Amino acid sequence: MPKIGVKLRELRRRRDLGVRELAARSGISHSTISLIERDRMSPSVDTLSAVLDALGTTLPGFFSDLQSGLPYTPFYSAADLPEIGRAETVSYRVIGLNHPNRQMLMLHETYAVGAHSGQEFTHAAQEAGMIIKGAVEVTVGDKRKVLYEGEGYYFDSRLPHSFRNVHDGKSEILSAITPPTY
Question: What structural domains does the chain harbor?
Answer without folding.
Answer: 4-62 (1.10.260.40), 71-178 (2.60.120.10)
